[in-house]
Design a protein that fits this description.
- It contains 3 helices and no strands.
- By secondary structure, the protein is mostly helical.
- The chain has one domain (about 5-55).
- It is globular and about 45 Å long.
- The protein starts with a helix and ends in a 20-residue tail after the last helix.
Length: about 70
């Protein structure tokens, strides 16, 4: 699967009630951008991944424990 298809699939499954990431861009904005101009967003992602831009290959994950679950 190419990155552009993975992007569309991931955005459609992403939650809309989360805060923005390190780049201060949230899923709702990316989903809106994907709906309004999918070709431009896919080209940007392809460019970032194929040109080894370091920030495009890193992520921050924060685990938040649930009060009612072990």
């Amino acid at each position: 699967m190419d990155p552009a298809c993975e992007l569309e699939s991931a955005i459609k499954r992403s939650p809309t009630n989360t805060g923005p990431g390190l780049d201060n861009i949230g899923y709702p904005f990316i989903g809106y951008w994907l709906k309004e101009n999918p070709d431009r967003l896919k080209r940007l992602v392809d460019y970032g991944l194929t040109n080894d831009i370091p920030d495009w290959h890193s992520a921050e994950v924060v685990l938040i424990p649930k009060a009612d679950k072990p």
